[in-house]
């Protein structure tokens, strides 16, 4: 029996058995189109339709949002989302498309939204019927998030929004956006407020979404332009001027820290069809011709592959520590560390795959001669997004050093 099953309560054990049986009986058919490696690169309606149908089916079966109260669309359970995630991971089911909604918007709305707003928005978020995006970064405000300038001007019980958000994943499908706005230009952090805004219904009437083509050729990113978009004050989360504090809730969940203290709703827990593990590197090395043999015959490459395997094993051990209450002396330490390590290990693995492939790493999707269908170059290019998203690796190290280890602030 797996370690996690040994720790299940009777309620959780019954839920695990039910979840496993449902997944086995309801595994979705093969997709009619190629799926991207993560939901952040969904480009076409066909991809989205397939994945939304899967999330809706899982939600109807009680496998999404199950730790949230029933009043907001959940099942009122305790630590059962983790079990659902584990079972879907084990079965290698498709990922959910509403990753930003599940991982960031749901906990933020739950903790900071008015009751009527939670009851209105969260059920359709959990089911995947409403896709969400995140409006944080701007052309002049990325790592320095508190410098955002997209402005909301109050007019009675309404707010009029003008400005420019960028690097907005899934905005081309999103019904709703969580957004950090400036409501007072005279102060920095205290001049920020946090809203949820409907963007799909306002396309062409206050909202413009423009795709940004990445170096992979995919268009998961977008820029979003606001021109006199009017929203009701009921869409504001928490008090006026408390946007920075609300944003920290969002970022804590994006970085993984929120999982220690909040209901879970599910997210990008499922493996993509392309594995980027060290074991996949071993298969690739054996399949890659090199100097009359294979790349696996190269002792230097073998050593580098084993180093990646060691990093993976260490990371898995580190993740297990988050289940030990006595080790959670600082709620951000392990999650921030895990986010940093996970993104850099992934980048190291895909980078090593490029070295194993050699000249063949220049072959891309659609080339019949590309090893593993050209997925490794795609993974390597996408990996840079994960060392930037939710705060760059440099930002993560600063937070760990200053707030966890108590080191002096960098200049």
Keywords, separated by commas or semicolons:
411 residues, alpha+beta, Butyryl-Coa Dehydrogenase, subunit A, domain 1, Butyryl-CoA Dehydrogenase, subunit A, domain 2, Butyryl-CoA Dehydrogenase, subunit A, domain 3, 3 domains, four-stranded mixed β-sheet, four-stranded antiparallel β-sheet, 12 helices, 41% helix, globular
Account of the protein in words:
The structure is a single chain. The protein has 12 helices and 10 strands. It is of the alpha+beta class. The protein folds into 3 domains: 3-97 and 112-129, Butyryl-Coa Dehydrogenase, subunit A, domain 1 (Orthogonal Bundle); 133-241, Butyryl-CoA Dehydrogenase, subunit A, domain 2 (Beta Barrel); 278-404, Butyryl-CoA Dehydrogenase, subunit A, domain 3, CATH 1.20.140. Helix 2 (10-26) runs parallel beside helix 4 (81-91) and helix 10 (333-357) packs antiparallel against helix 11 (375-386). The N and C termini lie far apart (51 Å).
Task: Itemize the secondary structure elements and their pairings.
Layout: H1 3-6, H2 10-26, H3 45-60, H4 81-91, H5 99-112, H6 115-127, E1 132-135, E2 151-155, E3 158-165, E4 176-182, E5 192-198, E6 207-212, E7 221-232, E8 236-237, H7 243-254, H8 278-287, E9 289-290, E10 293-294, H9 299-321, H10 333-357, H11 375-386, H12 393-404
Structural class: alpha+beta
CATH architecture of the largest domain: Up-down Bundle
| Count of distinct structural domains | 3
End-to-end distance = 51 Å
Mean pLDDT metric: 88
Unreliable runs: 257-262, 268-272
Helix/strand order: HHHHHHEEEEEEEEHHEEHHHH
C-alpha geometry = globular
The CATH homologous superfamily of the largest domain is named Butyryl-CoA Dehydrogenase, subunit A, domain 3
Count of helical regions: 12
Write down the CATH topology of the largest domain.
Butyryl-CoA Dehydrogenase, subunit A, domain 3
Helix content: 40-55%
CATH class designation of the largest domain: Mainly Alpha
Number of strands: 10
Largest sheet, strands/sense/barrel: 4 strands, mixed
Tell me the fraction of residues in β-strands, as a range. Answer: 5-15%
């Amino acid at each position: 029996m797996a370690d996690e099953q040994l720790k299940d309560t009777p309620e959780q054990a019954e839920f695990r058995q039910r979840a496993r049986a449902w997944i086995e009986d309801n595994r979705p058919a093969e997709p009619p189109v190629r799926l991207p490696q993560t939901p952040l690169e969904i480009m076409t309606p066909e991809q989205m339709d397939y994945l939304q149908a899967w999330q809706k089916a899982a939600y109807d079966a009680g496998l999404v949002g199950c730790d949230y109260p029933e009043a907001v669309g959940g099942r009122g359970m305790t630590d059962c989302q983790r079990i659902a995630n584990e079972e879907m991971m084990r079965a290698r089911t498709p990922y959910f498309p509403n990753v930003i909604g599940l991982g960031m918007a749901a906990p933020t709305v739950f903790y900071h939204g008015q009751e009527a707003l939670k009851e209105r928005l969260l059920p359709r978020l959990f089911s995947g019927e409403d896709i969400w995006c995140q409006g944080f970064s701007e052309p002049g405000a990325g790592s320095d998030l508190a410098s955002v300038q997209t402005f909301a001007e109050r007019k009675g019980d309404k707010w009029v929004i003008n400005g420019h958000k960028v690097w907005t994943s899934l905005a081309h499908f999103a019904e709703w956006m969580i957004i950090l706005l400036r409501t007072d230009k005279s102060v920095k952090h205290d001049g920020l407020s946090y809203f949820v805004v409907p963007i799909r219904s306002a396309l062409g009437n206050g909202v413009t979404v423009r795709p940004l083509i990445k170096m992979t050729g995919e268009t998961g990113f977008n820029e979003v332009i606001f021109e006199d978009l009017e929203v009701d004050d009921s869409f504001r989360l928490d008090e006026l001027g408390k946007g920075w504090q609300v944003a920290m809730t969002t970022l804590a969940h994006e970085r993984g820290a929120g999982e220690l203290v909040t209901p879970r709703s599910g997210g990008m827990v499922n493996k993509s069809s392309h594995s980027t593990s060290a074991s996949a590197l071993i298969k690739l090395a054996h399949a890659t011709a090199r100097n009359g043999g294979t790349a696996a015959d190269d002792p230097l490459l073998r050593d580098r592959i084993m180093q990646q395997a060691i990093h993976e094993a260490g990371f898995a051990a580190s993740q297990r520590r988050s289940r030990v209450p006595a080790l959670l002396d600082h709620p951000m330490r392990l999650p921030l560390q895990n986010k940093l390590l996970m993104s850099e290990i992934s980048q190291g693995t895909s980078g090593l795959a490029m070295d194993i492939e050699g000249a063949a790493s220049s072959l891309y999707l659609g080339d019949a001669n590309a090893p593993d269908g050209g997925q490794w170059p795609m993974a390597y290019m996408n990996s840079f997004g994960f060392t930037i998203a939710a705060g760059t690796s440099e930002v993560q190290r600063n937070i760990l050093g200053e707030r966890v280890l108590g080191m002096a602030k960098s200049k």
